[in-house]
TrEMBL record:
One of its GO terms (cellular component) is cytoplasm. This is (2E,6E)-farnesyl diphosphate synthase. Its cofactor is Mg(2+). Signal peptide: none annotated. PANTHER family: FARNESYL DIPHOSPHATE SYNTHASE. Belongs to the FPP/GGPP synthase family. GO terms for biological process: terpenoid biosynthetic process. Keywords: Isoprene biosynthesis, Magnesium, Metal-binding, Transferase. GO terms for molecular function: metal ion binding; prenyltransferase activity. It comes from Formosimonas limnophila. The gene is ispA. InterPro entries: Isoprenoid_synthase_dom_sf, Polyprenyl_synt, Polyprenyl_synt_CS, Prenyl_diphosphate_synthase.
Length: 280
């Protein structure tokens, strides 16, 4: 969705950009952010076509962030989802441009006249995604992470960092899905905030556990990279078993946050269960 409209132009100009963008988006992945959009939207009675558009926009932003994270100036990784990273295949310049293009494509999708949402809702979606992916969200969290390589970081500060780096986009996925619905938009957004906070941290803690306990073939990316780079992680702060206990605590808290919704929140509960059980 969205990429196809650029295909003819890219082919006509013999540009490798579309291929680099496609490699970054379509090389597998868990699609957790897209699933969060769909689950929150279903909870609030949203129509599927609009949710799919929003889900695609979130995945484009996530893919752009991974392409840039893997660059030599960032994490310098050669593997992503079991395949060579975009800059390894297409070069650093094309990888940088592919990330830039996916970021702008996400906002183009949300602003499209084809989206079956009110103009006011579209503006709210764009504003939410911009906040979550910018300096007070994902990009800001990544900056803090890079700054603290080799430095100590308290668990409280590390939690704040990951609420920006990982949690902000997951939170936006839930809020944006809810915004697409026909129910009382403020009530589910308020109720989802706590769930989103626990889910975002859970996802990051599990990532740290996997990085420390699984092999490259299982992860699809270089195992032990965070520890080798002396990055602050929950495993480094709490130990492996302590991090596993913390993950289970976050999972229980996430489920508790959904209690007011009852069975209507089953898809969100399933998403939390997936994020928790992939530890093992």
């Amino acid at each position: 969705m969205g990429l196809n409209r650029y295909a003819d132009h890219a082919v006509a100009h013999k540009s490798p950009l579309l291929n680099a963008m496609t490699h970054g988006v379509m090389n597998g992945g868990k699609r957790v952010r897209a699933l969060a959009v769909l689950a929150a939207g279903e909870l609030n009675g949203a129509a599927t076509p609009a949710l799919l558009t929003v889900a695609a926009a979130l995945e484009y932003i996530h893919a752009y962030s991974l392409i840039h994270d893997d660059l030599p100036c960032m994490d310098d990784d050669d593997l992503r989802r079991g395949q060579p990273t975009v800059h390894v295949v297409y070069g650093e310049a094309q990888a940088l441009l592919a990330g830039d293009a996916l970021q702008t494509l996400a906002f183009s999708l949300l602003a499209s006249r084809d989206v079956e949402l009110s103009a006011n809702t579209q503006i709210r979606l764009i504003r939410e995604l911009a906040r979550a992916s910018g300096a007070v969200g994902m990009a800001g969290g990544q900056a803090i992470d890079l700054y603290h390589v080799g430095l100590s970081l308290s668990q409280t500060d590390m939690q704040m960092m990951h609420q920006l780096k990982t949690g902000a986009l997951l939170h936006a996925s839930l809020v944006m899905g809810a915004l697409c619905g026909e129910g009382d938009v403020n009530e589910p957004i308020d109720a989802l905030n706590l769930f989103a906070e626990h889910l975002g941290l859970l996802f990051q803690v599990v990532d740290d556990i996997l990085d420390a306990s699984q092999e490259t073939a299982v992860l699809g990316k270089t195992a032990g990279k965070d520890d080798a780079a002396n990055k602050p992680t929950y495993v480094r702060a709490l130990g492996l078993e302590g991090a596993r206990d913390y993950a289970q605590s976050l999972y229980r808290s996430a489920l508790a946050a959904l209690t007011p919704y009852g069975e209507r929140a089953q898809r969100l509960a399933d998403l939390a269960a997936y994020c928790a059980t992939r530890v093992y």
